[in-house]
Design brief:
InterPro entries: DAO_C (IPR031656), DAO_C_sf (IPR038299), FAD-dep_OxRdtase (IPR006076), FAD/NAD-bd_sf (IPR036188), G3P_DH_FAD-dep (IPR000447). This protein is an alpha+beta fold. Among the domains are: 181 residues, FAD/NAD(P)-binding domain (3-Layer(bba) Sandwich); 126 residues, Alpha-glycerophosphate oxidase, cap domain (Helicase, Ruva Protein, domain 3, Orthogonal Bundle). The chain has 17 helices and 18 strands. The strands form two sheets. Strands 3, 4, 5, 6, 11, 12, 13, 14, 15 and 16 form a ten-stranded mixed beta sheet that branches.
Length: 543
């Protein structure tokens, strides 16, 4: 992907479909639409997946909590949501095997009655999971649980229930969708902000007026159809096209805290089924750390980046501590992140945690704008399919959706053992090789190739982590990295696992970007100063 080339095409060409928002749903729509033969543009006001789609719990799942609510309340809408999630789970796993993989989750229980309750519930969960090869749930003895998760408090532990879902690197999975769409013919660009719409004589939107945030230049993108996939920000785009529409989105903030891997000291994740506010909380190993989340609170200011407050951090630590032999202190926090859920609401009296993560495709008959509203990561492909099916109806086309079988960028000819070839061919250390294969899949050799002409690019960005300088250059050349945060937060995920080490790596990343992008000293220092100020605030707030 080349941003300058994309900008020229966006200014010059006319499109069948222009998609606003390059998170999971927008990227999914772009791939589906281009594979059906449409000429597609996709833009985002920030980086790809920079909002909700990079701030998830990193799970691919049907939703255990939804199943419990469905059974208790005989709620068939909740049941449908679980079914959709589990149907899509195996597709998400299969289509990008380098970025998504099975994850074993343990639920510790304190009595045999509690264990029986969860075992029955998870057996029901298993029955909805057709067409996949994940192992079924099972009840484990106290000894078996402690072998898998030795950090638990053996005094209160009775036994545990083990089940499987999937885990993904959400930001890179979204990027793979954008890359795949781009390679199939879509035109993609980040840092393009929507200013408004142009309309034809019938009042239908037929162009988007935008600004290139990097240059400040404004231009118009002409398109026969415009699809709004902006998640929590959907109402802003909907009302720009038609101010008479009612607001439909009730954003909810969810935060995660990140603690050292040793907190659980296990490759298994934990599901905590009982919390003080009735939610479930997950503690999940990710990138050498452990993520705990998530909260669910109403969010009134969607323009400010969602961050963690002291109460939320304490709540998550207090939720985990009763299960641990050695209690953790909030001062052990390595990082954290918050995100907004685009909850779809017709009833303002409901709490956000009771709202379904289901989706809806809205077509505004006055403006012609199509909006994909609501939804969740696991069902992104189904959401996109339903949206492009509506586009087919409007364009009077009969196309087939093929995304259920479409292997994403980096997943083609994927071989988990490729890391050994990298070790032999380029002389990387084992942890670097394994990291490159898990991030870039079959394209990991392209990172290695960059080091043949410049051996200095083999150097680590941090002694503690397997990330290397060549990845910065690759990100600029092929992944549309525009700012240091694009790389550190979303291409390698360091920001969400270790704030201090991100700050340590920032000057090196900025220097490499300056060399490649032609920044002068003033621009380089500006980039470092703005991002380091954010990181220092996070570190300071964490205490």
């Amino acid at each position: 992907m080349n941003r300058n080339t994309s900008l020229e095409k966006l200014k010059r060409e006319e499109f069948d479909i222009c998609i606003i928002g390059a998170g999971a749903s927008g990227a999914g729509c772009a791939l589906d639409a281009v594979l059906r033969g449409y000429k597609v543009a996709i833009i985002d006001r920030k980086d790809f997946a920079s909002e909700t789609s990079s701030r998830s719990t990193k799970l691919i799942h049907g939703g255990v909590r939804y199943l419990e609510q469905a059974v208790k309340k005989l709620d068939f809408a909740q049941l449908k949501q679980v079914k959709h999630g589990l149907e899509e789970r195996h597709i998400v796993l299969n289509n990008a095997p380098h970025l998504a993989r099975p994850l074993a989750l343990l639920t510790p229980v304190n009595s045999w009655i509690e264990g029986l309750y969860y075992k029955i519930g998870l057996q029901i969960y298993d029955t909805f999971a057709t067409k996949d090869s994940l192992p079924k749930s099972k009840w484990l003895s106290k000894k078996e649980v402690l072998e898998k998760m030795p950090s638990l408090d053996r005094k209160t532990l009775h036994s545990g229930v083990l089940y499987y879902d999937g885990q993904l690197d959400d930001a890179r999975y979204c990027l793979a969708l954008v890359q795949s769409a781009s390679e199939a013919g879509a035109v993609a660009a980040n840092y393009i902000e929507v200013n408004g719409f142009e309309k034809d004589e019938k009042g239908k939107v037929n162009a988007v007026t935008v600004s290139d945030i990097q240059s400040g230049n404004t231009f118009t993108i002409k398109s026969r159809m415009i699809i709004n996939c902006t998640g929590p920000f959907s109402d802003k785009i909907r009302l720009a096209a038609n101010p008479k529409l009612p607001e439909r989105i009730r954003p909810s903030k969810g935060v995660h805290v990140v603690l050292p891997y040793e907190t659980l000291n296990s490759e298994y994740a934990m599901l905590i089924p009982k919390t003080s506010d009735g939610r479930v909380v997950f503690a999940i190993p990710f990138e050498g750390a452990m993520i705990i989340g998530t909260t669910d609170t109403e969010c009134r200011d969607i323009n400010a980046e969602p961050t963690l407050n002291q109460k939320e951090k304490q709540y998550l630590v207090d939720t985990l501590n009763p299960y641990l032999a050695r209690k953790i202190d909030i001062s052990k926090l390595k990082a954290g992140f918050g995100g907004l859920r685009p909850l779809l609401s017709a009833d303002p009296s409901k709490s956000t945690k009771s709202l379904l993560r289901d989706h809806e495709i809205e077509m505004d008959r006055h403006s012609g704008l199509i909006s994909l509203l609501g939804g969740k990561w696991t069902t992104y492909r189904l959401m996109a399919k339903d949206t492009i099916d509506v586009a087919d109806e409007i364009f009077k086309k009969e196309n087939s959706c093929v995304t259920d079988q479409y292997v994403l960028a980096g997943g083609e000819n994927y071989n988990p053992g490729l890391w050994k070839q990298l070790q032999t061919e380029f002389g990387f250390e084992e942890d670097i090789c394994r990291h490159l294969v898990r991030k870039y899949g079959s394209r990991a050799t392209r990172i290695g190739a960059l080091t043949l002409n410049d051996p200095a690019l083999k150097q680590r960005l941090s002694a503690q982590y397997p990330y290397i300088k060549a990845e910065v250059m690759y990100g600029i050349q092929h992944e549309m990295v525009v700012t240091p945060r694009d790389f550190l937060a979303r291409r390698i995920r360091l920001e969400i696992t270790d704030w201090k080490e991100t700050l340590h790596c920032l000057p090196v990343v900025a220097e490499l970007m300056a060399q490649s992008l032609g920044w002068n000293e003033e621009e380089k220092q500006k980039q470092v100063a703005s991002y380091s100020a954010e990181l220092k605030k996070y570190i300071s707030d964490a205490g």
